[in-house]
Write a structure and sequence with these properties.
This protein is an alpha/beta fold and 395 residues long. It folds into two domains: 104 residues; 206 residues, Vaccinia Virus protein VP39 (Rossmann fold). It has 15 helices and 13 strands. Strands 5, 6, 7, 8, 9, 10, 11, 12 and 13 form a nine-stranded mixed β-sheet that branches. The protein has a four-stranded antiparallel β-sheet with strand order 2-3-1-4. A hairpin with an 8-residue loop joins strand 2 and strand 3. The longest helix has 21 residues.
């Protein structure tokens, strides 16, 4: 593909990304894969170059662009090399017409940018690209003895001795250590959220919103300290496809996890046997995902005030469901990968008010206090954005 043809390909993919975002469909990564599936003429270099153009254009836009071409023209305003490829050449984009639509820049749609500003979020870092973090699986190997093809960098070693950081795009999933279950790909912020649970061998722990089980596996590793998994770890979710991915991952990691598929809206019924039993419950609740924009920049275009209101209501309900499972003296850990206060400090404060539970300090030495919890941010901590808070059942 010529450089101009790559730009035109990126424009076509951006059209599909915008359409999928507006209807809540496939993420950009999947759109890109599907686009190239029927275009075998593109080599690996072409695919990498086009993918880079797509994500650079997404990051350059704030509100949803009217078209992929408008998004690429926005990128062209800041990149003369891209601008020069709008030359009308064969397979390339047409020459720019005076007055043609150019996407608006910025952090996000105006309403959302306002919410972020009100939550004290520094937005510039959200447009960057995230590094790749892995967690050494201490259920199988000690971090200090594991040798990897690349050494990586330590991430908060006093807090996360098993965390390693590599450059974005590092092919860790092709390493023997990954195939053997010695490492898992997991953002440092996500690893810290699992640490907040403080799971230890012999406990009963419930991961209420486990998804594909990234934090579940981290909890299992903590419950294997000293050699051999001990206790009971129950991973739950209402998404059958995501939960089904956890079984093979747990087998590869060498840990024991119970999985339980729940009926959305009726989670309490599916967990009745665990009421008042759990030492700890992790509520890693569905959220807006504003803390993950470095990885999923088009997520800005998927969110609406109505959707934000919906997920806030879901977070409150799931905290209440989780609270019913905690034994007296046990703990509930609330986590969202959001930087918005209504999904963080505000949501947790409301839970404390209606439950009468007590907040428990989680002071790992990174992040910053936000309300009764902790907030991690890409700007301050160079990881995904998270809100993490711990509550203790007092009676």
């Amino acid at each position: 593909m010529t450089p101009a043809a790559r730009v035109q390909a990126a424009i076509e993919i951006l059209d599909a990304v915008i359409a999928e975002a507006l209807r809540g469909g496939a993420p950009a990564d999947r759109v890109i894969v599907e686009w190239f599936r029927t275009r075998r003429f593109a080599g690996s270099g072409d695919r990498r170059a086009v993918r880079d153009l797509v994500f650079r254009a997404i990051r350059a836009c704030g509100p949803v662009p009217v078209s992929g071409r408008a998004a690429m023209l926005r990128l062209a305003q800041d990149d003369a090399a891209v601008a020069g490829l709008f030359d009308g050449s064969r397979h390339g984009p047409a020459v720019v017409v005076p007055g043609e639509a150019v996407a608006e820049g910025g952090l996000a749609p105006a309403w959302l940018a306002g919410r972020l500003a009100a939550s004290g979020v520094e937005g510039a870092a959200l447009a960057g690209r995230a590094a790749l973090d892995v967690r050494v699986n201490v259920a199988r190997v000690l971090p200090e003895v594991l040798v990897l093809p690349e050494a990586g960098l330590a991430v908060w070693p006093e807090v996360l001795p098993a965390a390693r950081r590599f450059a974005a795009g590092t092919g860790v999933e092709a390493w023997d250590a990954y195939a053997a279950g010695l490492i898992e790909v997991q953002d440092a912020g996500s690893q810290l959220a699992a640490k907040a649970v403080a799971a230890v061998p012999g406990e009963t722990v419930v991961d209420l919103c486990a998804g594909a089980g990234g934090k579940t596996l981290a909890l299992a590793a903590d419950m294997s300290a000293g050699g051999g998994f001990r206790g009971r770890l129950v991973a739950c979710d209402a998404d059958r496809a995501r939960l089904a991915r956890l079984g093979p991952r747990a087998e590869r990691a060498g840990v024991v996890v119970e999985t339980r598929l729940l009926d959305g809206g009726r989670e309490g019924e599916g967990l009745a046997d665990l009421a008042g039993v759990a030492d700890a419950v992790l509520v890693d609740a569905p959220c807006s995902g504003t803390g993950t924009w470095r990885r999923n920049p088009e997520a800005r275009w998927r969110l609406s005030p109505r959707e934000l209101e919906r997920v806030c209501g879901l977070q409150a309900r799931l905290m209440d469901v989780g609270a019913e499972l905690v034994r007296p003296g046990g703990r509930l850990v609330f986590v969202t990968c959001s930087l918005l206060d209504e999904e963080g400090a505000g949501a947790f404060a409301a839970f404390l008010a209606r439950s009468g539970w007590a907040a428990e300090a989680f002071l790992p030495g990174v992040g910053e206090a936000r309300g009764a919890g902790l907030r991690l941010s890409p700007a301050r901590d160079d990881c995904d954005g998270f809100f993490i808070a711990v509550a203790r059942r007092t009676c």
